[in-house]
Prior knowledge:
Layout: H1 16-32, E1 36-37, E2 43-45, H2 46-54, H3 58-63, E3 66-68, E4 74-77, H4 82-91, E5 101-110, E6 122-131, H5 136-153, E7 158-164, H6 168-182, H7 191-199, H8 210-216, H9 228-243, E8 249-250, E9 262-270, E10 278-284, H10 288-291, E11 299-305, H11 306-315, E12 328-332, H12 335-350, E13 355-357, H13 364-374, E14 378-382, H14 384-389, E15 391-396, E16 402-406, H15 410-415
Parallel strand pairs: 1-5, 7-8, 12-13, 12-14
Antiparallel strand pairs: 2-4, 3-4, 5-6, 6-11, 7-9, 9-10, 10-11, 14-15, 15-16
Helix pairs in contact: 1-5, 5-9
Amino acid sequence: MINIPKGTKDVLPSDVYKWQYIEDVARKTAHGYGFAEIRTPVFEHTELFLRGVGETTDVVGKEMYTFLDKGGRSITLRPEGTAGVARAFVENGLQGGAMPFKAYYLFSAYRYERPQAGRLREFHQFGAELYGASSPSADAEVIALADGFLKNLGLGHVRLNLNSIGCPACRAKYQEALRDYFRPHLSEMCPDCNERFAKNPMRMIDCKEEGCKKFTAGAPRMLDFLCDDCKAHFEEVKSLLSGAGIEFYIDPSIVRGLDYYSRTVFEFTSSAAGAQGTVLGGGRYDGLLSQLGAKPTPAVGFGAGIERLLMVLEAEDVQIPTPEGVTCYLLGMDGKSRQKAFLLAEELRKAGVSCETDLMERSVKAQFKYADKLGAKFVAVIGESELAEGAAEVKNMQNSLSERVKFEELAQYINER
């Protein structure tokens, strides 16, 4: 027996309705904000993620699924959604269209990391991207979309944390201040932090090692190094969120794990999300398209893990609507009646009635049990006398009442009840 690869999971028919619930809420919420769906390839040229995500990130350095295809090209399974959407935006000439460009995605992504609760090697994301607007209102709208999505899911214990990591100019001064602060402590910090010290000291703030947290807690704050423009931008974002009634908390430790972020960064967290409480994260990334060699274009967006959301929904005991069973089960009592049931089932389906019939040549008793398991609202019984009369004995499974209904009137009868 061949088993499923480590870090992946089957979504069985008994559970898929939970995924569909999240996807439906995501689509409806995104459409309400004028976002349209985009679909990009599962794999891209590796260079896209080296340039877009950043070589100093853990994603690129440790977690990507990268391989050579038969043509000798380096290919990578997408580890996140933003870089692929940015590539599609540029390659398809969308920069010349109406702005802002708004798109959302629902797809799988891949990272080679230790599987844990709410995080698999194949995972799924809902994300939204807005290109072309540099205004604080664009940041606020994307955050409002994320906030509305989580509330529409029924989550009630989610907290919005907000920070600004500035622009390249003020961030350079901040990074030097971080190096001055961390330099005396490097010998007591983890190997990853020692590596980040040279490449990107801001990533040290996000370290999860307990031995490093005692130093990162007292590190300088990016908010104290913001230039006037970045400070004004952040103040306007906060003002718009407050005006919209969206509660937030300032968290200087948010730096996000990918290199393309700038200015506003945010996370929605939940105490029900396990060891890592983030259920949705995002921010502004005005420099991403220029990193990819395209015309500089401001952008802001977010990503949310579906597996993590499912875990939080369960922890908060959110009742996800269960799908209805089939409307009608057509029960054939013998060979000829089963044939008629099969043909009637096709007619009912064409009339919009969800129905099933016997494919296992079960006994009458076993068919009734099966119909009950399916949650069928009606069972239309067809036997010798029903064939002769041209009518089925239709039993309402909710009140056990039965009624004779002509075959040609069966679809209308069921649709009216």
